[in-house]
User: Which sequence fits this backbone?
């Protein structure tokens, strides 16, 4: 029993399954939350009465971006998570061969791309709010620049760079384009996540913190607080270095010089990325969370508000890969 447990915990396939399961559970949580919020929004007469005072097009954008998109993106990612965890389970247990696993992976890629594309209306809403001023009741005088920096630009980058990469990877798998071509686009997708979803996305949240807004903690004084400064450096500098490290590790495969990645380097990359989310969890709770530090960053980094917090599981997957160091799994 003990030996079997050690074999399971030392299996990279098991930790891929754990990561996929965490991805699915987080996606399901946000899907349920999005549905609950959307239903509540429809029945909220106060919100409707307040929005009725503003131009009709803003009400359309608000209900679309906050209500419809909030539900759809969670729904798409939950479906992606279901197929991802199904594929990971089959891969872990060596069941049904690669054909069924590939089928599930392509479906997961499609719905993950749909998740990003469904955020388009939120980008439009953020730009509309920015260019029309601070006169809409819902944002309570929040500077439009914050909305653009925290939501508009990061989401736009995900739609433009991440979604097409995922769809092209899916296309290559469906076409049986060959191991080199599939590996190339898998690496490009991973690099896109590192640069856009993680580094640019979270760095823009810190940029939003720098916009002055007296109701909550913003500005340089907030940044220079020691724990916040550490979090900023790990985000803006650390994630950028990690993204370039990922690019360097993936470059031989992207250039089709090889189809195999150095598992030791990939393990180190995944452990560092997962460790970043582990740090954020301790950082959030040890500093008192959002209630003690009301700001964009604490809202983004909170484990129950961050849709990418499931990535903390990558720390363990990476550790297993480093320890195995290219040794084939028995």
Assistant:
């Amino acid at each position: 029993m003990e030996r079997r447990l050690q074999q399971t915990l030392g299996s990279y396939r098991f930790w891929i399954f754990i990561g996929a399961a965490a991805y699915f559970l987080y996606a399901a949580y946000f899907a349920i939350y999005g549905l609950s919020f959307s239903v509540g929004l429809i029945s909220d007469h106060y919100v409707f009465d307040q929005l009725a005072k503003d131009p009709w097009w803003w009400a359309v954008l608000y209900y679309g971006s906050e209500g419809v998109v909030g539900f759809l993106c969670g729904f798409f990612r939950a479906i992606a998570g279901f197929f991802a965890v199904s594929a990971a389970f089959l891969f872990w247990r060596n069941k049904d061969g690669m054909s069924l696993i590939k089928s599930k992976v392509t479906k997961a890629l499609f719905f993950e791309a749909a998740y990003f594309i469904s955020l388009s209306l939120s980008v439009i809403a953020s730009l509309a709010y920015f260019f029309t001023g601070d006169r809409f009741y819902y944002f309570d005088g929040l500077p439009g620049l914050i909305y653009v920096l925290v939501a508009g630009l990061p989401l736009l980058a995900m739609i433009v760079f991440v979604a097409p990469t995922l769809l092209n990877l899916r296309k290559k798998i469906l076409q049986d384009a060959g191991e080199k071509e599939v590996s190339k686009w898998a690496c490009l997708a991973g690099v896109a996540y590192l640069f856009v979803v993680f580094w640019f996305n979270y760095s823009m949240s810190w940029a939003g913190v720098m916009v002055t807004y007296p109701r909550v903690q913003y500005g340089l004084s907030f940044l220079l607080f020691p724990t916040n400064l550490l979090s900023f450096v790990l985000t803006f500098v650390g994630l950028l270095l990690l993204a370039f490290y990922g690019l360097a590790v993936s470059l031989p495969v992207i250039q089709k010089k090889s189809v195999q990645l150095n598992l030791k380097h990939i393990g180190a990359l995944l452990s560092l990325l997962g460790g970043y989310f582990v740090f954020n969890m301790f950082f959030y709770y040890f500093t008192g969370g959002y209630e003690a530090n009301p700001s964009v960053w604490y809202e983004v980094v909170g484990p129950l508000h961050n849709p990418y917090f499931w990535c903390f599981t990558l720390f363990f997957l990476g550790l297993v890969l480093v320890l195995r160091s290219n040794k084939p799994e028995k």
Observations:
- Residues 11-177 form one domain.
- The chain has two domains: 11-177, 194-330.
- The CA atoms of residues 110 and 167 lie 6 Å apart.
